[in-house]
Write a structure and sequence with these properties.
Length: 443
């Protein structure tokens, strides 16, 4: 019966979060589609140069939300409601600090940042507009991510999913309205994206208006130690998202030298599809987090192991389906975003899709195992996995393989990195499992 309940919880939380994360990731995919149709190759290039900064904003929100949500779930399962409320309050404080940083960057440094990211005269103005507006909407993105994670851990995963999907659908509709009927260009695309988290927050509001929330904002001082614990537990979520931005920045620089603006536009198709696929794995990982954290607080290690097994099995099945679709549908996928029917873009992106997404099962394993470690208060292996895949391996791998294989080497850098890190992650898991078995035996 316990295993049956565990499976039911997994299906409920994981399915809702996968659907929600797909919806959330479609913020950018919708921009990619409508910008490609309305503004062509230069618009797609401008979007791809600016979009890595969105990964930093989204990743910061997930770091605070997932880190705070993990602590909150454990404290709630142990009936420590005062500590749980302090955790939520300090998570909001952290979100405000990060929001102020991003807004100031948007006001004073957006031009400088976009120049450093490689924008030339043809795409500079569009890229700067997109980047500046995204940064000014950072408070909404951050608060939305924090509330989504806490509402999910508060026993309302359906509402969390509805908010994510509702925000995304509004973005799709507003993208079309602002770019085509209103003729607002790149500003219309980013304005629609910025409004989406506000709509998501409005969808979450009944949880508070009807007083269903078990967490509350209370009067308390900012606690540095609690800041540290929240950030430590959430760092893997940050690195998972930020690594997408870092990889895009590095790949954009390499591809600009190899293939020019058309190559960057082709990579835009691959990178934005990658955001959706990684979001599926993140959805599974976020889905198991409340279950694993709650069972960890209650010391139900059998249920933790069962939940992880369900997550990895689901991930492998989805990876097989995703890669089959990408491999056989690469040309058709590229054509959707290639509004000008650019033959060079079509060739580069089609070949890139088939090579890049070999990484699917390895990336899925790395995302899930990182959240598993943080959900069981083992942040160190999660940090190592996240930093390796986000920075220490992927960057030198991209330069090395691009030197050997040119553009094909760039595409192979991602699967090579994820495979290497997955092996390291598996070794960490085996090691921690042995330690856990010893503790359980003694108890």
């Amino acid at each position: 019966m316990a295993k049956s309940n565990c499976f039911r919880d997994f299906v409920k939380y994981a399915s809702l979060n996968v659907m929600g994360m797909i919806g959330l990731s479609c913020y950018i995919l919708a921009d990619t589609f409508f910008v490609s149709k309305g503004l062509g190759t230069n618009g797609l290039t401008a979007l791809n140069l600016a979009i890595p900064i969105y990964s930093f904003i989204h990743g910061s929100g997930l770091m605070i939300g997932m880190g705070g949500g993990t602590k909150y779930s454990i404290q709630k399962s142990q009936q420590d409601h005062r500590a749980a409320n302090r955790t939520f309050t300090n998570a909001v404080y952290l979100a405000a600090i990060f929001a102020a940083f991003f807004v100031l960057a948007g006001i004073f440094f957006s031009g400088t940042i976009i120049s450093l990211l490689g924008a030339d005269d043809a795409v500079f103005d569009m890229s700067k507009t997109y980047l500046q507006v995204i940064l000014l909407f950072a408070p909404a993105f951050l608060l939305n991510n924090v509330l989504l994670c806490f509402v999910r851990n508060d026993g309302a995963p359906q509402l969390s999913m509805a908010a994510m999907i509702g925000g995304s659908l509004s973005n799709v509709v507003l993208d079309w309205v602002f770019i085509f009927p209103c003729q607002m260009g790149i500003f219309g695309a980013v304005f629609a994206t910025g409004l989406a988290p506000i709509i998501s927050i409005l969808i979450l509001s009944p949880h508070f208006i009807r007083k269903k929330n078990q967490f509350h904002f209370i009067k308390c001082k900012a606690e540095r130690k609690l800041f540290g614990r929240i950030l430590s537990s959430g760092i893997p979520s940050l690195v998972t998202e930020v690594s997408s931005g870092v990889v895009m920045i590095v790949f954009n620089a390499i591809i600009l030298n190899l293939e020019g603006n058309v190559g960057v536009a082709a990579y835009g198709v691959i990178a934005n599809l990658s955001l959706v696929i990684i979001a599926i794995y993140t959805g599974i990982a976020q889905g198991i987090q409340p279950i694993v954290s709650r069972n960890y607080g209650l010391k139900k290690f059998g249920d933790i192991n069962a939940t992880l097994r369900y997550a990895l099995t689901t991930m492998l099945a989805l990876s097989a389906v995703i890669y089959t679709v990408v491999f056989f549908g690469a040309s058709q996928i590229t054509s959707i975003f290639n509004s000008e029917q650019n033959a060079i873009l079509q060739t580069i992106a089609t070949e890139g899709l088939r090579l890049y997404f070999i990484a699917c099962p390895f990336a899925g394993f790395n995302v899930i195992i990182s959240i598993y470690f943080t959900s069981t208060e083992k942040p160190q292996p999660a940090h190592i996995i996240s930093i390796l895949r986000g920075f220490l391996v992927i960057i030198p791998m991209a330069f090395l393989l691009s030197w050997f294989g040119k553009i094909h080497g760039v595409w192979c850098a991602f699967p090579a990195t994820e495979l290497l890190v997955a092996i390291i992650g598996l070794l960490f898991f085996i090691s921690t499992r042995k330690k856990q078995n010893k503790i359980t035996r003694y108890e």
